[in-house]
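Batch job 17 of 40 flagged for manual review because the log was empty.
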Amino acid sequence: MAPHDDASHGSSHSTTASGSGGHGTAFTTAHTTPLYSSSWTPTSTGAYAGTCLFLVVLAVIFRALFAYKHVYERRQLDRHLNRRYVVIAGKPSKAEELSHESDAKSALLVGPRGQEEDVKVVKANRREVMPFRLSVDVPRALLVTLLTGVGYLLMLAVMTYNVGYFLSILAGTLVGELAIGRYGQSEEH
């Protein structure tokens, strides 16, 4: 068996993949790394700093969108769980049963024909899958689509293998988490 000759394979294993659109397989500190397209190529140190600042802001927005999604879903679930109306007019046995319910609150409900009915508002104690509602599910789907788009933009910036871009995204994530991360926390934490 012949010994392995590194000289014959030297040009095919380069770490600066010039044939792959200018993106290398090793991190670089070049200030002229294009971001998203060749027309967004910083040509000066100030332009590079501006690009890095853009990535910091984009990462903060990404974190803010996650927090907003959590707050939105929590509000919609609370609305869903608090909309349980049980009509008790004319049914004293049910009224007596609900009067001992600790989570029930008395209320006055105006029915679809304008009549007033005595009701007890009973909050559901268990978490359940909410039914499909256009007013809830379409905005949530649009929000997740926006989150996905911003996440992929950040991923593409990291895939340039530029150290400044990578550290800018990490800095934006840190700032975003410190500023708004507590709004995306669940009650269990």
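Reviewer: the log was empty due to a logging misconfiguration, but the result itself is present. The mean pLDDT is 76. Unflagging and moving on to job 18.
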